[in-house]
Amino acid sequence: RYIVEHGYGYPTSQIEGSTLPLFQGLRKGDIDLTMEIWLPNQAAAWNEAVKAGEVLPVGKSLEDNWQSSFLIPQYMQDANPELDSVEDLKEDQFKALFEQEGGKVLLLGCIAGWGCRTMQDGDDSGPGQIVGMGLEDHVVLQDPGTSGALAAAVEAAFAKKEPLLFYYWGPTALALKLETEMGGLVDLEQPDPSTCADNSPIHGCSFPAAEVMIAMNMELVDDAPELIAFFKNWDWSAVNQLAAENWHGANSEALADKGASSEEVFTATGVAYLKNNEGWKSWVPADVLANVEAALAKE
């Protein structure tokens, strides 16, 4: 946003929300730009929108991300070396290790409105991972409500070395912390994406590497065509992503305590990233770079 506003001179506003409704807003023209369209999680709607000429793909938002619905802490596998597959979740000796609901293992899963939730639950195009892997009598999904609540629940369980079956993704600051500071995590063996139609987990296999795309509504393409090159140059590598996440994690609470809104906290994170990193300077032409640097000098 800071680059678009101060570099290119376009006013911006921010809308926070779940991936599926945000993408529908993009298709209808209520939203101009979406920075995270997760594939294959949103593949059906994405392919339909691109084919209909409703949106224009303009680049990749993140490095290819990993994600899994069936993660456990390394300390659980250390204590139970034979627990290494989703098939083991069908056996009473392993189910007994986890928190249960109605005799089923509780899966801390994706949030309603996220594309990954459709991959877990299924829809008209496929049964979803839980049913597709034959786990419907053995696993029940619990919606954590928000990404923050999901992260907090996972970190708390690891800190107490409690049993947990959960969904998460990376590269993220929390995933890195779980791996390097909290003992590690294990991705239970699942059917390979190549065994499913279109490599889609909705048919009962693991997630392939996720492409996370940027797309513009066609009205914005007409109004600000120079932004296309900017987003095509965008390179939000894991190094960039974790630098921003770590600054946000270290400073967001203090800023909120001072009365900063969520939007203001994100803006401050962006400013901190731009001031302390050089990579973004290759994404824009010289005149835009000069405009952004002039604005940063006043911050």
From TrEMBL:
One of its GO terms (cellular component) is ATP-binding cassette (ABC) transporter complex. InterPro entries: ABC_Gly_betaine_transp_sub-bd (IPR007210). GO terms for molecular function: transmembrane transporter activity. Pfam families: OpuAC (PF04069). This is ABC-type glycine betaine transport system substrate-binding domain-containing protein. It comes from marine metagenome. Residues 3-245 form the ABC-type glycine betaine transport system substrate-binding domain.
